[in-house]
Amino acid sequence: MSFQDFWKKAKKATALGIESVRTTQFEESENPLKDGDFISSSNKFRKTSQLVYDTLKNFQELANNMSVVSSYQNALAKCFTENVKISESTRFEANASSFQRTVASLVEDIKSNTDLQTLSSKRAEIQRLSRIQEKLQNNLLLKNRAEEKVTKLIAKGTPERRQAAQAEFDKRYENVNKYNRDFQVGVDDLYSEVKALIIQLAIFYNVISEQYIEAAKTEFVPETASLGIFMGSDTSDGCDHNIIADSPQE
Predict the structure, then answer these.
(1) CA–CA distance, 154 with 32 (Å, rounded to integer)
(2) From the record, what ranges are coiled-coil (predicted)?
(3) Span 200-216, pLDDT tens digits
């Protein structure tokens, strides 16, 4: 792979991720969640939780991609400053250092972003709601079983057995209502908080991506020196081309 091909692939790989957060949409429910509407609340929880994890992953991948490309340039700098004339070498090193500082600054901006940190903290709430959801599922199952048992014992069954079955049903019914209320309130709160965070993070993601692309256009090696400096007429420049063996693929 030539350095020119590598650069095209690196730019494309970066560009592919730029729209990931921007195009992510919440699905507003026309009807508010109702008490006992377990399927609706579960779907809302699943979609909101997935959005949290996907957004965190998108930012991590963006930071990793920028850092990887910066590391490629550092490797190129070490190699090519030994193979070009001093004037080109000085300009090359300046651009390489500038790009490295830019990427380091952008990665630090991602790490220190308060909205992203808040979104990351929502993973604990997701885990808490998952436990409530599990309890709700279990009690729904036990309530249904108790209801079936009560129905069967109405036709034939001792008063004691009917009373015990009814008590079990009442217990599970109360538990279902309690866990469902807790789950619904928790999911609605999580949804509202995540939605507000995503609106801000989508803007932040685009700003970081655009700053990175702009820096790459003006500071990344293949864009700031003639291709001949790096490739030579026969693409034999004395450098180890294996440094880009793991470059982003199309």
Answers:
(1) 36
(2) 119-149
(3) 888 888 888 888 878 87
Cα 2 to Cα 8, 10, 74, 224: the distances in Å are 10, 12, 17, 16
Lowest-pLDDT choice from 59-68, 74-83, 149-158: 74-83
Q: Number of folded domains in the chain?
A: 1
Report the candidate in 222, 236, 231, 232 with the shortest Cα–Cα distance to residue 9: 222
Q: CA geometry: angle at 164 spanning 162 and 167, to 5°?
A: 110
Q: How far apart are the first and last CA of the chain?
A: 13
CATH number at residue 43: 1.20.1270.60
- HSE-CB at 138 with a 13 A cutoff on CA atoms is 9
Parent domain of 156 = 3-21+38-226
User: What tokens appear for 135 in the block?
Assistant: 């309890």
Decide if 80 is inside a domain. yes
Q: Is 83 helix (H, G, I), strand (E, B) or coil?
A: coil
CB 140 within 8 A of CB 38: yes
> In sequence order, what are the residues at sequence separation of 6 or more whose Cβ sits closer than 8 angstroms to the Cβ of residue 95?
218, 219, 220, 221, 224, 225
pTM for this predicted structure: 0.69
Using alpha carbons, list the distances in angstroms from residue 142 to 42, 145, 169: 18, 5, 8
Structure tokens at 84: 């070009």
